[in-house]
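[audit] Reproducing an earlier prediction to check determinism. Same input, same settings, fresh worker. If the tokens differ from the archived copy the diff job will pick it up downstream; this log only records the rerun itself.
[audit] input (270 residues):
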Amino acid sequence: MTDPATAPGSAQQKIDTSVPHSARIWNYWLGGKDNYPVDEEAGDAYTAVFPGIVTIARSSRAFLRRNISYLAGEQGIRQFLDIGTGLPTADNTHQVAQRIAPESRIVYVDNDPMVLAHARALLYSTPEGATAYVDANVLEPERILKAAGDTLDFSRPTALILSNILGHIADYDEARSVVDRLMAALPSGSFLSINDGSRGIDPVFERAQDGYNSSGAVPYNLRTVDEITSFFDGLELVEPGVVSVQQWRPDGDAPEPQVIAEHGGLARKP
């Protein structure tokens, strides 16, 4: 996840190990090791209130994997713009896409210096494809598009990935504007993938998140399912629409999907 409060040019900033960071906490919940004691402490404090956050984190990652597999395998998408990528872990966007189509081109965007350092060190492309990294703030869509244009051809269909990033934009109208400005630059046949924590599903989750937001950490704002669905206005939702992420095209051997407080969907630009 990318925190919009971080200023542009953060790749040159010193990593602050005294303050917990959402991307590192999320990585901790995913089972990753790229975090600091302060992140583990914050993550453990959260799970003490709401243990289900680990399921949400891992279900979110699985949803993204299924999205990318569908896009590369069934829709023939070969370009991906992943904003707020977070720390590298298993089944990163380019790994999933390039397993299916080695010529796929992926641009990752984040503004956490630790994320960018790990991405550049660990995320290698296939020879046929390309992987690039942009240091930018999600609130700067035009800057993102300009930089990503060095790797992606925006005359060709492109998948825009916004996974657990829009909740960092406090104002809903501003979040809608970011999505609209990004999608406006993409041609017909492009896709939008969004998933975010949802309000109105699990009150224990909401209390835990509200407590985290009041702790001084960069806040993450849960949104109603209707609000998440509205990000897709004007686009053609892929079945089953906006649903709890475990329910979006589950793998055939997956356990019975549950309704958890993380909703997402995938839609095509007509």
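[audit] rerun output stored. Observation attached for the diff report: The two ends are 28 Å apart (CA to CA).
[audit] end
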